[in-house]
Design brief:
Length: 66
């Protein structure tokens, strides 16, 4: 099962969604040959993307409220 299919399947169980997606993502990276430092870098970049998205959302929210 490809990663996207696992994510869609995991959506049906909100209580375990995060753990299922994280495990599938980690395993996919390991199968692809990523080292632990590379996986840590990817995780950091994912968090960075989330922070950027939240900052953009907040900026748009402030424009609407003014």
């Amino acid at each position: 099962m490809i990663l996207e299919e696992k994510i869609v399947k995991a959506l049906n169980d909100p209580e375990t969604f995060s753990k299922c997606v994280a495990t599938a993502f980690f395993r996919a990276l390991k199968r692809a040959g990523c080292s632990d430092p590379q996986i840590i870098a990817v995780a950091s970049d994912v968090i960075g993307c989330l922070i950027d998205s939240l900052n953009k959302f907040e900026k748009r929210r402030r424009k609407v409220s003014v």
